[in-house]
Automatic annotation (TrEMBL):
Its EC number is 3.2.1.40. This is alpha-L-rhamnosidase. Residues 176-347 form the Bacterial alpha-L-rhamnosidase N-terminal domain. Residues 462-807 form the Alpha-L-rhamnosidase six-hairpin glycosidase domain. It comes from Flavobacterium procerum. GO terms for molecular function: hydrolase activity. Pfam families: Bac_rhamnosid, Bac_rhamnosid6H, Bac_rhamnosid_C, Bac_rhamnosid_N, Ig_Rha78A_N.
Length: 916
């Protein structure tokens, strides 16, 4: 009997522990293809993910069970008619592949997950949903593209193209009560969709841009709540975007244009009695170009005449007798795809800090921050009064706008009042990069309250925070955030203000990696890799700009090589194998193309840009003229190609193409031998002309013989520390590896000096000279400001990676991609006295908050559930270390001592570490 009660007590005790654990563990953030409840995906076996959030330590998933149903009612009733995975033994909670019944066009799927952990069983607190899109081109065959293939009287096709917006409407009659309804829309180049007078969705500047001759993205919206039995009105406004290019009949050999705006739409309705209906675009839709949006051009701005507003145009009570019937038009040509990345959105607001009158009677508005988006205007006046707003990044010495660096972009919005009390307006189909706005047309001085800055970028989460003991580094981080976010426009662009705004590959070779710590950019960059793949020529060439809105096919290595390095980032940071498998054939095709056409005597002979934007020897020079500062282009392209071969070896394993590895190995070995024969100077232990970049690349890529590595590194350090007096001397290529290599090889203090410098050339120099974003040129304020974009990100190099991996100690173990295991190894002696950083990984929040003085290091860390970390502590004696107030030498944590460091392996949870 005594044994029975002991046994019963043990069972009750275990049950109580399990129940308590469940109360402290939740499963949330359910995602499909890393999107939250996406509509219209075009993947039949999507990947499902979830996060386990726990208030207790050492939580590991042991099993999971996914239930997927065709309706929410069935799911809630436990009827998994699409998929019951059963209890699967697995610790994977990211990218779990759906393996249920074959999914069909336009099907809705509802799912949830039960997670079994070492601390108990937990059901997801939320129910997730996704729907399948229209999977085949044939399913759009009954839907015709409509538009108007003519210019209106004030339109023009010229260098400064003008085109008014197209307004379309269609009255429909729904004869029964609506159970569900979804609309599928392709609006080229940009659209806004309305039903019964209400805008559908909060997206702006939709859809994301592509090469429209290759692929067209459609968006899907559940509009059940917007429709009613009886008469309803569908309405759209079509803007120009990249479709009707900003510059027409101007360098047509370079700039692509795709035609006049057009659209295709399908509305699927299911009634409560089970019957269905489909409404499609056809020539019964009504159209006008005589609306209030007179012109919309991404470079030049938007013109709006409120006197031409058509009140109620998207409702059933509007008289459209003066509208014409829409015309059937030629389709764009690209394949139709569900959009698998976020649209843009107004993400935050900025209030201006000052407004001053100029000598000519206009006003200069200062937003206090170089931002990207537009200005909302509040104004009162008479009908016909015009308010003109011209946007720029900086001012001249006399207080007027500096516009030379905008080139021929007019960057001007014009609003004509209707004269009906307070009028509130903001543009729909443009964006500007600006801090300052010149405003004219007000009869009296406007108040700051008349204006609000709307910040626009892709609707993705900010995932990283960083604060440290160095104010300059902190401001650089803020500047980077503003620059990166502003240049996310459905694709990563180089700048948001002048007549360029192009998705240059070379700006993101390593930059995308650093950006991934600040933003959840996985789907953005996965989409961009598709853009690059679609831009590849039949023989294998890849352009420098993709989508190839500019036809720049220069057969470079370092710029097109971004195709491979960004895929590697997605694998390393997010554990995304699928993107590697999908892109591998095209990557291999490009690697083969470059080998066949440009590899001569095992040296890659094609380089176009060199180490772009090396800091010139003079503050007045745009480009350096000193040969001693410039790195041999073939050295760069050969070293870079060698590194790409090593990445491709890893990709070959992931893509089940192991047969390619032998070729990559043999070719890499030959290039390494030829490289050292040609460029290594044995008498000086340096490469080529001994620039930092010339020595840095072979060191970083493992091309230097082991016994010579230290001597080559000493040369590199001498160049940075002595010759360049502790300043950056690398361009876009070298800066991608500079900070990490210095730190990893023992000179984190020198990297810190580069990061915290305030004098030219440095990131801090930009801050000291008033920058609130990152410049295109190291000396952009003095060389020729007309050549300088004040919002560029390419010069960040690997700085942000260094912030997180080397200063905060938040790094994904390459052996377990996606932060399944974290390497936490900050350089505590580089120069900072505290760092407080966080990163929202695919497993959950990682935190690293450390502070040190002469007496102790105090380090608080958070490791997400179902993950772990290898933590490196700056001590060799375990007796001086305590974790959660428990002495390490008396604790059960797995640890070892190596090279004057203690390595501790920790499971998930919160830890307070003290090292005396």
């Amino acid at each position: 009997m005594k044994k029975f009660f002991l046994h019963l007590t043990l069972i009750i005790s275990l049950f109580t522990i399990s129940a308590k654990a469940q109360n402290k563990i939740i499963v949330s953030d359910l995602k499909c293809e890393m999107l939250t409840n996406p509509e219209g995906i075009d993947v039949l076996q999507p990947r499902l993910s979830w996060k386990i959030k726990a208030e207790i330590n050492d939580v590991k998933q042991t099993h999971y069970q996914i239930l997927a149903s065709s309706s929410l009612e069935k799911l809630n009733a436990g009827n998994a008619d699409l998929w019951d995975s059963g209890k699967v033994q697995s610790n994977e909670s990211v990218n779990v592949i759906y393996n249920g019944k074959k999914l069909k066009d336009r099907q809705d799927i509802y799912w949830k997950v039960t997670v079994f952990t070492n601390k108990g069983e937990v059901k997801s607190t939320e129910t997730a949903h996704f729907s399948i899109g229209i999977l085949t081109y044939a399913d759009w065959k009954s839907t015709r593209w409509i538009g108007y293939e003519k210019l209106s009287k004030d339109d023009s096709v010229s260098q400064y193209s003008r085109l008014s917006a197209r307004y379309l409407r269609k009255e429909i009659n729904l004869k029964k009560q609506v159970k569900s309804a979804k609309v599928y829309i392709m609006g080229m180049g940009l659209y806004e969709l309305y039903i019964n007078g209400n805008k559908i969705g909060d997206q702006v500047l939709a859809p994301v841009p592509t090469d429209y001759t290759k692929n067209i993205k459609y968006n899907v919206f559940d509009v059940t709540s917007q429709l009613k039995e009886g008469k309803n009105m569908l309405g759209t406004i079509l803007g120009n975007g990249r479709f009707f290019a900003m510059r027409q009949d101007y360098k047509p050999y370079k700039i692509k244009s795709f035609g006049l705006p057009k659209m295709a739409l399908q509305l699927f309705v299911e009634y409560t009695d089970g019957s269905k209906d489909v409404i499609r675009t056809d020539d019964t839709w009504k159209l006008t170009t005589d609306g209030p949006i007179l012109a919309n051009n991404e470079y030049d701005g938007e013109e709006y005449d409120a006197r031409k507003e058509m009140k109620g145009w998207s409702t059933t009570n509007f008289d459209d007798k003066n509208w014409i019937n829409a015309r059937y038009v030629q389709e764009p040509g690209g394949f139709y795809e569900g959009q698998m990345s976020a649209n843009m959105k107004v993400k935050r607001e900025v209030k201006p800090i000052s407004i001053k009158q100029t000598s000519k009677g206009t006003y200069i508005l200062d937003m206090g921050q170089n931002m990207v988006g537009w200005l909302q205007l509040k104004v009162k006046g008479n009908a016909g009064d015009k308010i003109t707003m011209k946007f720029a990044e900086s001012l001249q010495s006399d207080g007027s706008l500096y516009i030379a660096n905008l080139r021929d972009a007019k960057t001007t919005d014009v609003y004509t009042l209707k004269g009906e009390g307070e009028e509130v307006w903001e543009p729909r189909f443009v964006y500007h990069g600006f801090r300052f706005v010149e405003i004219s047309g007000f009869k009296t001085k406007p108040a700051l309250e008349n204006f609000v800055g709307k910040v626009v970028y892709d609707d993705i989460q900010t995932t990283g925070t960083f604060d440290s003991s160095n104010p300059i580094m902190n401001q650089i981080f803020k500047n980077a955030w503003w620059g990166i976010s502003g240049n996310y426009k459905g694709m990563p662009i180089d700048c948001p203000q002048r007549n360029e705004r192009q998705p240059w590959l070379g700006d993101r070779t390593t930059g995308a990696y650093g950006e991934s710590f600040l933003f959840d950019n996985q789907t953005l960059y996965a989409k961009w890799l598709d853009d690059i793949k679609n831009s590849q020529t039949i023989d294998g060439g890849i352009p420098d700009v993709a989508p190839a809105f500019w036809r720049y096919y220069g057969d470079n290595v370092t710029w097109p090589g971004t195709y491979i390095t960004v895929a590697d980032m997605l694998y390393q940071q997010f554990g995304d194998k699928k993107v590697v498998e999908k892109q591998y054939p095209s990557m291999k095709k490009w690697m083969d193309y470059m080998e066949e056409n440009y590899l001569v005597d095992d040296i890659m002979t094609k380089d176009k840009y060199g180490d772009w934007c090396v800091p010139p020897e003079s503050l007045e020079l745009i480009r350096s003229k000193d040969p001693a500062r410039l790195t041999d282009g073939e050295l760069i392209s050969s070293a870079f190609y060698y590194q790409l071969l090593n990445i491709m070896k890893k990709f070959a394993v992931i893509a089940n193409a192991e047969k390619d590895i032998k070729h990559y190995d043999e070719l890499a070995s030959r290039i390494k031998k030829a490289f050292n024969t040609k460029y290594f100077n044995a008498s000086k232990n340096s490469y080529a002309n001994n620039t930092v970049t010339a020595n840095l690349l072979p060191l970083t890529f493992g091309m230097v013989q082991e016994e010579l590595q230290q001597k080559v590194f000493e040369n590199l350090v001498h160049e940075v520390e002595v010759t360049k007096n502790g300043h950056v001397s690398t361009g876009v290529i070298g800066t991608q590896f500079l900070m990490r290599t210095l730190t990893n090889l023992g000179r984190g203090d020198l990297a810190f000096k580069l990061a915290s410098n305030k004098t030219y050339p440095s990131w801090g120099y930009m801050v000291e000279n008033g920058a609130t974003t990152i410049w295109e040129l190291w000396n952009g304020n003095t060389a020729d400001p007309a050549m300088n974009s004040q919002n560029h990100v390419m010069l960040l190099g690997d700085l942000l990676i260094w912030y997180y991996e080397n200063m905060a100690g938040i790094k994904s173990n390459p052996e377990t991609p996606g932060f399944k295991q974290i390497i936490m190894k900050p350089d505590f002696n580089a120069g900072l006295t505290y760092v407080n950083a966080s990163y929202e990984s695919v497993y959950g929040t990682i935190k690293s908050d450390w502070k040190k003085d002469k007496k102790a290091l105090v380090w608080n860390i958070t490791i997400p559930a179902n993950s772990s970390a290898v933590v490196y502590l700056p001590a060799s004696d375990v007796s001086v270390v305590s974790i959660n107030k428990q002495k390490l030498d008396k604790a059960s944590y797995s640890h070892s001592t190596e090279e004057n460091q203690i390595k501790v392996t920790l499971s998930s949870g919160n830890y307070a570490i003290n090292v005396k």
